Amino acid sequence: MNICIFSIGTQGDVRPFVALGLGLQAKGHRVCIATGKSCEALVRDSGLDYAPLTADFLEVMARDPEVLQRGLNPLALLKTARRELKAMSADWPEQAMSAARGASLLMGNGMVAALASALAERFDIPMVETHLQPVSPCPDIPPMMLPPPQRPRPGVINQGLYHACRVLTWQMMAPAYAAVREQLKLPPLPWYGPFYRRKLPHRVLYGFSPSLIPPSPHWPENVKVAGNWFLDEGERWQPPLALSEFLAAGPKPVYVGFGSMLGGDAQRLSDIWRQALRNTGQRGIFATGWGGLTAVDDAQIFCLSAAPHDWLFPRVAAAVHHGGAGTTAAAAKAGVPSVVMPFFGDQPFWAWRLASLGAAPAAVTRKTLSVDSATEALRYALTASCQDKAAELGQRIRAEDGVDEAIAQLQRWQLLPGMPDFQLAGSAA
User: Fold this and answer.
1) Domains in the chain and their CATH numbers?
2) Are residues 110 and 85 in contact, defined by beta-carbon separation less than 8 angstroms?
3) Beta strand pairing call for 223-225 and 105-109
4) Per-residue three-class SS string for 213-265
5) Rounded CA gap, 100 and 110, in Å?
């Protein structure tokens, strides 16, 4: 059967769905991933079908680097995202219908879950909402959209905050989806969004490890946690000879890299983390490819543009990173401690969770980062206790198979077997 998956964002937001798509493809299904142009090569090189979706967040960050400075302010981030999503969405109805032509199942992640849902409503196609972080209201898991609490909140307050965040999130997306639904000839949604009074069966499938976030017992039966969807590339990747020689020449180094997080303080961050490595007597690897760090001239630090996390992380002593869902999961799977310096979004949530599990120190704050705070965080990550907790977490995650479990859950929902192909009409009419 044909399956179309919608996901936008950086490569970290799309890579898990490439992994899931490859798992589905191995079961005989044809998979198309609709995403931004910056992820086209990733999708095509993996052997999956690609469909364009106007959504280039790297361009947004490059055009407005201050978006990351505002990123830990939820209201500021919502305002920026509201503007950018409205501009991006002008082409979505036509693009989405083209991507989903012939699909028997739609899957939509994050901000484009509502796009997949609108298509499902318009053309009567089964749909599954997917997320890489928890967003379903419950009393026991703090909302990832808000700064983590210093101590557990009362359950009723925690659950109420989820509902408030849902409404705020919808207000961010509402201008984009008002136009989308109008073009698809669907009725407008109420001010509180699509979260209540749903007309179609609503299923939510989470692509994070239950070892990182155990499923809430308060979630309904239609909400399931499958496990991480890892796109493993290490077996096919050939490291540069210089990197192999550096790794062999001494103790395991500390990885420092901030993924696709761009900003205007790359030199400052490089200088601080370089000195923190010196203070702790550690060798380092700097990942500079996206511009979050600058290259340094230091015999104890190897600089590279990028390397597959599943290859590199088992070879390091700790990983300093931004706390993106993908990087967090990769470090956890490798069984190495993290030091998390969040930039925006869900990153403070993952920093909090790793610290709660004992696999990381408390998050370091980017704005007030100093040599002393970076050094202290590194020292904590290198303690035997933190190393042991990280190793235990890695052992549990490596025993999981999130892709297989996701496919099994789709089968239990009776969405994969015996589904007749559905042909979309040639236009929105």
Assistant:
1) 2-228+401-412 (3.40.50.2000), 241-398 (3.40.50.2000)
2) no
3) unpaired
4) CCCCCCCCCCEEECCCCCCCCCCCCCCCHHHHHHHHCCCCCEEEECCCCCCCC
5) 18
For residue 32, the SS3 value is strand
Q: Name the band, by pLDDT with cuts 50, 70 and 90, for residue 63.
A: low
- What the block records as the tokens of 127 is 């749909």
Model confidence at 306, pLDDT cuts 50, 70, 90, reads confident
Q: Who's near 347: CB < 8 A, 6+ residues apart?
A: 322, 323, 324, 340
* Helix (H), strand (E), coil (C) string for 263-304: CCCHHHHHHHHHHHHHHHCCCEEEECCCCCCCCCCCCCEEEE
In angstroms, the CA 395 to CA 392 distance is 5
pTM over 0.85: yes
Number of DSSP helices (H) and strands (E) in the chain, helices first: 16, 12
Q: How far apart are CA 112 and CA 58, in angstroms?
A: 17
Distance CA 229, CA 15 (A): 8
DSSP-derived 3-state class of residue 376: helix
Q: What gap in Å lies between CA 10 and CA 278, rounded to an integer?
A: 32
Within 10 angstroms of residue 333's Cβ, the number of other Cβ atoms is 25
